[in-house]
Each structure stands twice: as structure tokens, then as C-alpha cells.
Amino acid sequence: QVKRGPGNRVLRYTPALSTAEAERRRLERELREAVEGSGLSLHYQPQFQLPSRQLTGYEALVRWNNPRLGPVSPASFIPIAEETGVIVELGYWVLREACRQAAAWKFAGRCLSMAVNVSVRQFEQPDFVERVVQALHGVGLPGSQLVLELTESLVLHDKDLANRHIMALRAHGIRIAIDDFGTGYSSLSLLRQLPFEQLKIDRSFIQDFAGETQAISFQEARVVMEGVTAIARGLGLHVTAEGVETEEQLQLLSDLGCDKVQGFLLGRPVPAAEAEVWLPEIGGPEAQGPGASAGPDA
Ligand code: C2E
Ligand code: MG
Ligand code: MG
Ligand code: MG
User: Where is the EAL domain (predicted)?
Assistant: First the structure.
């Protein structure tokens, strides 16, 4: 087929292009195989309450160890999964596995929330709610322990459907968080259009505090965060900050009344066996991760 560049000029066929395309197709095929076989795994990143820094739960993050290439980042394979539709079955695999793990921890006496990322392509399937409920029932996990994270820009695709699904999920006690909040196109209008319960403020806003970005001063970054948390509180929404890497960021978020934090400072995503380090002992003392116990509040 003919490729066209700026000004509708026909681009010359280049071997480099076809190689990239062939590699992409190969990745797509391997990803499909990974979803159908046992090529995927999950890491769990802890989430902590503020100001207590107590563990409240985990976010499940998918990992792919490609036999040919080694570990591939979700940043490169999730977009491929989205475009090809593989994301739907990938998403259900993640959901089932995360629910299974949460149920296993629950039956060991450790009752925590499990957050699972859901793509809009999966969320818009007519039987989405049914399959989520099936995943819960399959392992005996109550809906109140499940949080579904939807990415903001994608939810707006079909607002009515999103509303119906969110209401149906809520009826099962399942909570909905808007992920990467602030990076989409209509953050503020979304707040009054969809009945979700939680906001996850995108990492880029948290990074502004550390002076890592040049676009905005520290003072301005703080004003933005103050505004977002004030609006969220006014609307009765629960606020989580993602990507917290420094004590300074954590302190500021705590001062602003942010409800929960997640980030490398307090805990990286790790396999289930390692994630158990943060879990409270059955009937024992409160959970304190290695990062949490280093803090002044702990
Ligand atoms: P996300 O849902 O916003 O997940 C948070 C990402 O930020 C994770 O990257 C996590 O490792 C990283 N992160 C957490 N704390 C920090 C920190 O303090 N500093 C920095 N620099 N990064 C931090 P990961 O695992 O590479 O996942 C990237 C994205 O891929 C996720 O962003 C999510 O949108 C998507 N994703 C991951 N797993 C799934 C899945 O099962 N289904 C779907 N649909 N998407 C997924
Ligand atoms: Mg997420
Ligand atoms: Mg996020
Ligand atoms: Mg993010």
C-alpha cells in the first residue's frame, strides 16, 4: 500500500519501515500467545493511607517476560494490546489473577483492597460488569475489596455506557478510580459527569514538586495540587497521589489532605511473594513497610 507524507507526497518504500512493521506484528503474535499461555505475571505496588502511612492495599501491574527479548515494559506492549484488541483478554487475565491473589491474602487473614487497571476497550464490552462479578465470585472475593482504575482520556469515549457500567459496578460494592487524573482532555467536566469515587493524580503533577520539570515553579505546582485536592474533597472524592518518590513530596501531599499515596519512596511494584513483606501479621501489629517505618509518622 502507498504511504503519504506531508503535502500528500508519496513516501518511498523503505526496508526500515517494513522491518519495524514486521517486528510489531511479531510482538503482537507473541503477546497473544503470552495471554493465552502463561507468559504474563503480576507485580503488586503497595498503597498507603495518609497521614498514618498504613498499608491499605495494592495495585496490580502486568509484566511480560518475552522469551526472545526478555522483560518488555507495559509502556510498549499495552499500546499494542490496545490497538489490536488483545487488551480485552489480557485485562481479564489480570483481573482474575489479581482477584485470586487478593482472595488468597484475605483467607490468610489479610483483608486489603486490590486495584486493577482496566482499558476502555475492555470496559466498553457489553458483558464487562458480568465478567468482573464472575471473577469475584470465582474466588470468593467481595466487591468492596476491588478498585477498578480507568484512564481518564479513554472513559469519555462513551459517557452513557460508562455511567451505566459504573452504577452497576457500584451496586456490587466495587469502587472506581480515574487513573492518571489531570492528563486527559476534560478533567474538570469529567468530575461532574461520571459517578466514580476516587481520583489518582498523575505522577507528572507530583514530579513538579521536586523541580524536575521546568514548565512550572514549585509554588505553581503547589497551587495546582491544592486546587485539585480541594475540588476532590468538596465533591466527596478520595484522592490518591501516584509516583511519590521523595519525603518532601510525601509531606506536602500529607499537608494538602491527600488520602493515599503510592510510589517508589514507600514501595516499588514487586512479585506477590515480596509484596507480602508489607502485609500485617494475622491478628498482629499494624502493617509497616520498609519505607513506611522510615518516616517520621511511623
Ligand atoms: P499506571 O496505572 O498509572 O501505573 C503506575 C505506573 O507508574 C507503573 O508503571 C508503576 O511502576 C509506575 N510507578 C509507580 N510508582 C512510581 C514512582 O514513584 N516513580 C516512577 N517514576 N514510576 C512509578 P508500569 O508498571 O510500567 O505501568 C505503566 C502503565 O501501564 C500503567 O500506568 C497502566 O496504565 C498500564 N498498565 C499496567 N498494567 C496494566 C494492566 O494490567 N492493564 C492495563 N489496561 N493497563 C496496565
Ligand atoms: Mg493504574
Ligand atoms: Mg496511574
Ligand atoms: Mg500514571
Answer: 24-283
Question: How many helical (H) and strand (E) elements, i.e. helices and strands, does the chain have?
Answer: 12, 9
Is the ipTM, as predicted for this complex, more than 0.90?
yes
Tell me if 142 CB under 6 Å of ligand 1.
no
β partners of residue 236: none
Which residues partner with 261 through β-bridges? 48, 241
Distance CA 57, CA 72 (A): 25
Indicate which residue's Cα is closest to atom 33 of ligand 1: 117
Length of the chain measured in residues: 298
- What are the start-end ranges of the H helices in the chain? 15-36, 74-84, 86-107, 120-123, 128-139, 152-155, 159-171, 187-191, 203-207, 218-234, 247-255, 272-275
Per-residue pLDDT of 250-277, as tens digits, reads: 999 999 999 999 999 999 999 999 999 8
Predicted TM-score (pTM) of the model is 0.89
| Per-residue pLDDT tens over the stretch 141-176 | 999 999 999 986 665 678 899 899 999 999 999 999
